[in-house]
Specification:
This protein is α/β, with parallel strands linked by helices. It is about 35% helix and about 15% strand. The protein contains 23 helices and 21 strands.
């Protein structure tokens, strides 16, 4: 500082405030709406959102905001949330952890006390009272792929760019700590003229070529090869390569529960959902009888594999991941699947590929007695008649996550689930974020339908975000499966125990409670198969904009067969003593 002039600022070619720089970068990487809640440590920063072209969502609590940012990112490619120091960020941390677990890129910006207050160790509100201002950042470090503490204006622009690039390329959350006295500090705005390079780094050519040669060696030799697509193929943006591989080789392709919608389910090569012992017999036989399973982006968690019930040998497996590849028992760290897939597609010798037809699953015809209750089996086998191309389908942890395995999607459907982290209530926030993402992409009139299948118990955790859906005029169809509590928990343990029960709500009244008039939302109550079938073909229900809220009743102890298999395996594992 000389004569009151900061030399660092004076030498900047185009000075811009830190908050303006940060939010402009968010806009440049594709974000249009920012979730979160105001707090005194982030208020001044929030003033900069409109100038950068960003919409402030304003959620009901930080946990819901994190879930919403997760759903937004799964549709838009990346999401953002702003919270306040301590009390706000810790409320969001479960949702951020889920995003880390499931490879979802979220930029978490935390407004925090000034650097002056931090150096002085002041006894400020929202602190632990011990002068430690890094405690919460340290908590978030384990669920973030990068942590940026914006304390020095000379480094801030580079820190922001690095964090955002890491967030996108590694498809995981980052944590950005923004002190109040840094919000209006100046940084080099000329950097904004060059957008952040989000291209995936190329593999080392020699190593990549070696892996490609090995993959092709086994593919050309295989008699019954199949492709198995999982969640990380979606998260790490290789679906174009996957579809090109299927189109060129004509190989049969399957998805895992977490990979649902990764493949066009109308494609003749699509075989269905593979999840070990919970799979349909024809699917199980073909995948487990294959002499080469090309697994793309796998996440072999318990609920994704029906209790680790895969019967696949590593000797007949090729596993392609975002940061390494495994061929049989040989691992190739640092060789990314995108480059490998592209070269396999280019170099495969089709005359040496044996492609068997995918199994055709014949569904049993369940007679529709119009007065019969709605069973899980009947519902999930028939709901696909209601779905349209381009829909976004969100399923909650519980019966919906498992039931949807049996639903065949039209083309270009996007499915959202949280099978690995499994935080009940996630889907309500995620639905709000997903619906907003498509509205940001296409505008209110052309936004995709977002359809949420939600359990009554899960809804009670995060129900407030219905008000956010109404507030932002989002195009949402919400089915609340009313079956008196936590069905998945009942099947794991305590079928009749009170801790798996919930309070009875008048669900259909919720839109009105949250301020919706008849134009903004409409509620329906469905108790029989006939009532549901009539509703699903009703033109007003299908074409109406805004919120359509369906109170849908199913028997208390009914569950999809896949849930029962997985819950039994989970119960046995929980009971193990050694």
């Amino acid at each position: 500082m000389t004569n009151g002039v900061d030399i660092r600022t004076k030498n900047l070619k185009r000075p811009v405030d830190v908050a303006e720089y940060l939010f402009t970068r968010l806009y440049q990487i594709g974000i249009r709406s920012v979730h979160g809640l105001p707090g005194d440590f982030n208020l001044v920063a929030l003033d900069y959102l409109p100038k950068a072209g960003l919409n402030w969502v304003g959620n009901c609590n930080e946990l819901n905001a994190a879930y919403a940012a997760d759903g937004y990112a799964r549709v838009k490619g990346i999401g953002a949330i702003i919270t306040t120091f301590g009390v706000g960020e810790l409320s969001a941390i479960n949702g951020i952890a889920g995003a880390y677990s499931e490879h979802v890129p979220i930029v978490h910006i935390v407004g925090c006390p000034s650097t002056i207050s931090q150096r002085s160790g002041l006894l400020l509100h929202h602190t632990l009272g011990n002068g430690d201002f890094n405690a919460f950042a340290n908590m978030s470090a384990s669920i973030s792929c990068a942590v940026a503490k914006l304390n020095d204006p000379t480094e801030i622009a580079a820190q922001i760019d690095h964090a955002l690039r890491e967030c996108y390329l590694r498809s995981r959350p980052v944590y950005i700590m923004l002190p109040t006295d840094m919000v209006e500090k100046k940084v080099e705005g000329e950097r904004l003229e060059t957008e952040i390079d989000l291209r995936e780094p190329a593999n080392d050519p020699d190593r990549e070529d070696y892996v490609v040669d090995v993959v092709l060696k086994y593919l050309h030799a295989a008699q019954k090869p199949v492709v198995l697509v999982d969640a990380c193929a979606i998260r790490h943006r290789v679906l174009d390569e996957v579809h090109d591989l299927i189109e060129k080789t004509n190989l049969p392709v399957f998805v895992t529960p977490m990979g649902k919608s990764a493949i066009n389910e109308t494609h003749p090569n699509f075989g269905g959902v593979y999840s070990g012992s919970a799979s349909s017999p024809a699917i199980k036989d073909m995948v487990e009888g294959s002499d080469l399973v090309i697994s793309i982006g796998s996440m072999k968690s318990d609920f994704n594999t029906a209790g680790f019930s895969y019967r696949l040998s590593q000797l007949t497996s090729i596993d392609l991941h975002s940061d390494h590849c495994i061929v049989r028992y040989s691992e190739y760290p640092g060789v990314r699947m995108k480059g490998v897939l592209r070269k396999v597609i280019e170099r495969v010798d089709l005359s040496r590929v044996k492609a068997l037809p995918a199994p055709k699953i014949e569904r049993p015809q369940i007679k529709c007695d119009s007065q019969a209750t709605i069973s899980q089996e009947w519902f999930w086998a028939n709901i696909d008649k209601f779905l349209r191309e381009d829909d976004i389908v969100v399923t909650e942890t519980g019966t919906a996550n498992f039931g949807v395995w049996e639903t065949r999607f039209p083309a270009n459907v996007t499915a959202l689930n949280q099978t690995l982290w499994g935080s009940i209530g996630w889907a309500v926030g995620a639905c709000q974020g997903a619906a907003l993402a498509t509205q940001d992409e296409r505008g209110p009139d052309k936004a995709r339908r977002t359809i949420l299948f939600e359990g009554d118990g899960s809804l009670q955790l995060t129900v407030q975000e219905i008000s956010t859906m109404i507030r932002h005029k989002l195009n949402v169809i919400l089915f609340v499966i009313c079956n008196d509590g936590y069905t998945i928990e009942r099947y794991i343990h305590g079928m009749e125990e009170k801790y798996n029960d919930i309070a009875a709500w008048r669900y259909k009244d919720l839109p009105a409670v949250f301020g919706a008039d008849e134009d903004a939302a409409k509620s329906y109550v469905v108790k029989t198969r006939g009532e549901l079938e009539a509703l699903l073909v009703d033109k007003d229900f299908n074409d109406k904009k805004g919120l359509r809220f369906v109170e849908l009743y199913m028997p208390r102890e009914d569950a999809p067969s896949s849930l029962k298999v997985t819950a039994e395996a989970s119960a046995k594992r929980n009971a193990m003593t050694e």
